[in-house]
From TrEMBL, chain B:
The chain crosses the membrane at residues 20-43, 266-288, 315-337, 371-391. It is found in: Cell membrane. It is a multi-pass membrane protein. It comes from Syntrophobacter fumaroxidans (strain DSM 10017 / MPOB). GO terms for biological process: lipoprotein localization to outer membrane. Residues 18-234 form the MacB-like periplasmic core domain. This is ABC3 transporter permease protein domain-containing protein. The keyword Zinc does not apply. GO terms for cellular component: plasma membrane protein complex. The lineage of its organism: Bacteria, Pseudomonadati, Thermodesulfobacteriota, Syntrophobacteria, Syntrophobacterales.
Length: 265, 422
C-alpha cells in the first residue's frame, strides 16, 4: 500500500504473513498516524521491516512442516508472487499431492486438484478454513494488506528480553476495522529491526497464536529470518513451520504465471 | 335408579329447552375435541419431522464428539453396537461426518459431508424417501452424492451434475474426488438444507482416509419405546459412549415444542372457558326457568339438599347425553382430519419453525386424552352451571314468590329500595 511518502509499510499482523508468503507478495502499509515520537518510531521500524521485504516479485521454494495431534506431514512447495495480490503456490512433494496448487488473484483463491484435473474457486465462507492442512487459514493468504487503515500501533516495550535487545509494537484494531484479532504484538530486534515474534490475540484479548522467527541468514542478498513457526494457543504440541529454502527477488513474471491455465500445468 | 328415571323424565318434560342446551354442549364438545386433536397433531407432526427424518429419537457419539465434531472422536466398535441394537429391535443408522468443500464450475460452497449406509438409513429413517429430485444413494459405493436443497441450489446442481469434492483427510492430506449428484433432498431443516452432502460410507472412508470408526449412531424406535427407556437401553448397550435424546440434541427446538404445548394449553383453556360460558348460560337459564318448580317442591317438603342433588344430577345426565353426541361428531371430524389432513400450503406455503420444516398438510392426532379432557370439562361446566341456580333455588328465601319476583323485577325489588319513611 503506497503511503504519502511513497513507501510501503507493514502492519504488525502482516509481518509474519509477509514473510511467510513473500510467496504471496503481500506487502502492507502503515499510514502515518498522528505525529508523536512514539508512533513515528513505530512507523519507522515497520517501514524498515517493510523495506526489507519489498520485492516487486519473488520466486522460491520452501518446506512446510505441519504437526498436529493426529498426524505430521512435510510439504515441499514452490512459489511465485508479484505485487501484493498475485501468487501461486504449488506442491512438489509428497507424491500423492504433487501438482496441487493454490492461486491467489486479487481477493480470489483457486485450487487446482491434479487427481481430478479440476480447478475450484474457494468460497468466501471457507476463508477461515485451514490452508493446505496447516495452521494458517486461507484468510491469511488473501488478507493482510488492509491493516494500515485498520490498526493503531505504538511501541509498548523496549529493552532486553530473553537476552535480546528488542522493541515491541502493540497494534490495536480500530473500532470499525474488519479484523479478526483483538490485538497483535510484534517484536523486532533493535539491532536490525528484523522480526523476532508476533503474537495474535483474539477479541477477548486472549493469546490465540504465536509466530516465532528464527534462522536469520542471507538469501538472495538479504538478511532474513528464514524459518517461521506458528503455534496455535489452544492446541498445545501443534505447529506449522515454514522454512525458506531459496528465494529470489525482483524476478520477471508475466501475467501468464498467475493465470488459471498455468495453475493447471 | 329412581333418581335416574326421574331425572330422565324431567329432561324431556321441556324438550325444546333440553334440545337447545344439549346442542350447545354437543357442539362445544365437537369443537373442543377437534381443536385439541389438531393441536396435538401439530406438535406430534413437528416432533416426528425431526425424529423420523434424520435426527432420530436419540443418538450415540463418542465422548466429547458433539463439542467439536472432531474427525478423530469415533465410536470404537460400531458393528457390535449396531448388532445389539438390532437384537433389541431398535432401528439404527451409522453415520460419519466431515467438513469440506463442494464445487461445480465456478461455484463452490462449504459442506458437511455425511457418510451413510444407505440400506440402514432407509430402514430406520425416512430421509431416504424425502427427495425432491432423483434417488437416494445406491447400496454400493459409486461416488454418488445426495445434496441438501439449498446447497444444490447454490451450486446450480441437479441430478447428474458432476461435483468436485475437497476435504482435509484424517491423515492430513487433501482428499479430493469427483462425485455425481444422484439426488436432492426435499426441505428438511436449515442445517441439512444448506450444508448436507451425503455419500456412501465407503466413499466417505476413502475420501477422508478414515478406514474405520463412525461418528454417530442415530436410533429410532418410531415411538415404540418411551425416551427414558430408550436412553436406559442405549446407556446399557454402549456404556462408553454419550447418549443424547432429540430433546438434548435440539434444545432450542425442544424448548419451542414445550412452549407450543404451553401456549396451546392456554389457548385451549381460553377456548374451553368461552365454550363453558356459553353452556353455562344455557344451563343457568334452563335452571332459572324452573324456579317455581323448585319452590313447589320445597313447599311439598323437599329438602334443599335433595333439590340440589336432583338438579345437579339432571345437569350431568344432560351433559352425558350431549357429550356422547358431541364425542361421536368430534371423533368423526378428527378422524377425517387425521387421515386427510388440512392442506395449509395455499395459506402459508412452506413454514419453518426453529429451522425445522413444517409439513404443509396439517393432520390431527386423535388420542384418548383429546377426547376425555373436553368431555370431562363439559361435564364439570354443566354441573357447576346447574349447581349455582339450584343452590339459589334451594335456599329458603321466604317465599317462592320472592324468587319469581326477583326473576321478573331484578334484585333491587327484593333487597329493598331505600328507607321506610315514618
Amino acid at each position: 500500500m503506497t503511503t504519502v511518502n511513497g513507501g510501503h509499510c507493514n502492519t504488525a499482523r502482516t509481518i509474519p504473513v509477509v514473510i511467510l508468503l513473500l510467496a504471496l507478495g503481500i506487502s502492507a502499509g502503515l499510514d502515518a498516524y498522528p505525529v508523536l515520537a512514539e508512533e513515528l518510531s513505530a512507523r519507522d521500524i515497520l517501514n524498515k521491516v517493510d523495506d526489507l521485504y519489498r520485492g516487486t516479485s519473488s520466486q522460491g521454494k520452501m518446506t512446510m512442516e505441519v504437526v498436529t495431534e493426529h498426524w505430521k506431514r512435510t510439504l515441499s512447495l514452490e512459489f511465485w508472487s508479484r505485487g501484493k495480490d498475485r501468487s501461486l503456490i504449488r506442491i512438489l512433494a509428497p507424491l500423492k499431492e504433487k501438482g496441487t496448487a493454490t492461486l491467489r488473484s486479487g481477493s480470489d483463491l483457486w485450487n487446482y486438484l491434479p487427481k481430478v484435473n479440476r480447478v475450484i474457486k474457494l468460497p468466501s465462507s471457507m476463508l477461515s478454513a485451514s490452508w493446505m492442512g496447516s495452521h494458517f487459514t486461507n484468510d491469511d493468504l488473501v488478507k493482510g494488506s488492509r491493516f494500515a487503515e485498520d490498526y493503531d500501533f505504538r511501541i509498548s516495550f523496549q529493552g532486553m528480553r530473553d537476552g535480546q535487545d528488542v522493541v515491541e509494537l502493540t497494534c490495536i484494531p480500530k473500532p470499525q476495522a474488519p479484523v479478526v484479532w483483538g490485538k497483535v504484538e510484534v517484536v523486532v530486534r533493535r539491532s536490525d529491526y528484523l522480526p523476532v515474534a508476533t503474537r495474535y490475540y483474539d477479541e477477548g484479548l486472549r493469546l490465540a497464536r504465536t509466530m516465532a522467527f528464527t534462522h536469520y541468514r542471507e538469501l538472495s542478498g538479504r538478511l532474513l529470518p528464514t524459518v517461521m513457526t506458528l503455534v496455535p494457543r489452544d492446541k498445545p504440541g501443534e505447529k506449522t513451520q515454514i522454512a525458506y529454502d531459496e528465494i529470489r527477488f525482483d524476478v520477471v513474471l508475466s501475467d501468464d504465471v498467475f493465470s488459471l491455465r498455468n495453475l493447471q500445468q | 335408579m329412581s333418581l335416574l328415571r326421574v331425572s330422565w323424565r324431567n329432561l324431556w318434560r321441556n324438550r325444546r329447552r333440553t334440545a337447545i342446551t344439549m346442542s350447545a354442549i354437543a357442539l362445544n364438545t365437537l369443537i373442543l375435541i377437534t381443536t385439541y386433536s389438531l393441536m396435538g397433531g401439530f406438535l406430534k407432526q413437528t416432533v416426528r419431522n425431526v425424529t423420523q427424518l434424520a435426527t432420530g429419537e436419540a443418538q450415540l457419539h463418542a465422548p466429547g464428539y458433539l463439542s467439536d465434531r472432531s474427525l478423530y472422536k469415533r465410536i470404537a466398535h460400531p458393528r457390535i453396537l449396531l448388532q445389539a441394537l438390532g437384537e433389541h429391535s431398535i432401528g439404527a443408522a451409522p453415520r460419519t461426518y466431515g467438513y469440506g468443500l463442494v464445487s461445480r464450475g465456478t461455484k463452490s460452497a462449504g459442506a458437511l459431508f455425511q457418510g451413510v449406509e444407505p440400506a440402514m438409513e432407509a430402514a430406520a429413517f425416512e430421509l431416504a424417501g424425502h427427495l425432491a429430485q432423483g434417488t437416494f444413494l445406491a447400496p454400493a459405493a459409486r461416488k454418488g452424492l445426495v445434496l441438501g436443497r439449498k446447497l444444490a441450489k447454490s451450486l446450480n446442481a441437479e441430478v447428474g451434475s458432476e461435483i468436485v469434492v475437497l476435504v482435509q483427510a484424517a491423515d492430513g492430506s487433501l482428499g479430493n474426488d469427483l462425485f455425481t449428484v444422484v439426488g436432492i433432498l426435499g426441505a428438511v431443516g436449515e442445517a441439512i438444507d444448506r450444508n448436507a452432502a451425503m455419500m456412501h460410507l465407503d466413499d466417505f472412508r476413502q475420501l477422508f482416509a478414515m478406514p474405520e470408526g463412525i461418528h454417530e449412531i442415530a436410533v429410532n424406535t418410531r415411538g415404540r419405546l418411551p425416551l427414558d427407556a430408550l436412553v436406559e437401553t442405549l446407556s446399557r448397550l454402549a456404556p462408553g459412549d454419550e447418549v443424547r435424546t432429540w430433546r438434548r440434541l435440539l434444545p432450542t427446538f425442544s424448548d419451542m415444542i414445550e412452549l407450543s404445548g404451553v401456549s396451546m394449553s392456554i389457548f385451549g383453556a381460553i377456548f374451553l372457558i368461552a365454550a363453558g360460558l356459553g353452556v353455562m348460560n344455557t344451563m343457568l337459564m334452563a335452571t332459572y326457568e324452573r324456579a317455581r318448580e323448585f319452590a313447589l317442591q320445597k313447599a311439598l317438603g323437599a329438602t334443599p339438599w335433595r333439590i340440589v342433588r336432583d338438579v345437579t344430577f339432571e345437569a350431568w345426565l344432560l351433559a352425558c347425553v350431549a357429550t356422547l353426541f358431541g364425542t361421536l361428531a368430534g371423533l368423526a371430524a378428527s378422524t377425517i382430519l387425521q387421515t386427510t389432513g388440512l392442506n395449509t400450503a395455499s395459506l402459508a406455503g412452506e413454514t419453518t419453525i426453529s429451522g425445522v420444516v413444517f409439513d404443509p398438510v396439517w393432520r390431527a392426532d386423535l388420542t384418548l386424552r383429546t377426547v376425555v379432557w373436553p368431555v370431562f370439562m363439559m361435564w364439570a361446566v354443566c354441573v357447576l352451571a346447574a349447581l349455582y341456580p339450584a343452590a339459589m333455588s334451594a335456599r329458603d328465601m321466604g317465599s317462592n314468590l320472592h324468587f319469581s319476583h326477583f326473576l321478573r323485577a331484578g334484585p333491587r325489588s327484593v333487597c329493598g329500595t331505600g328507607r321506610r319513611r315514618s
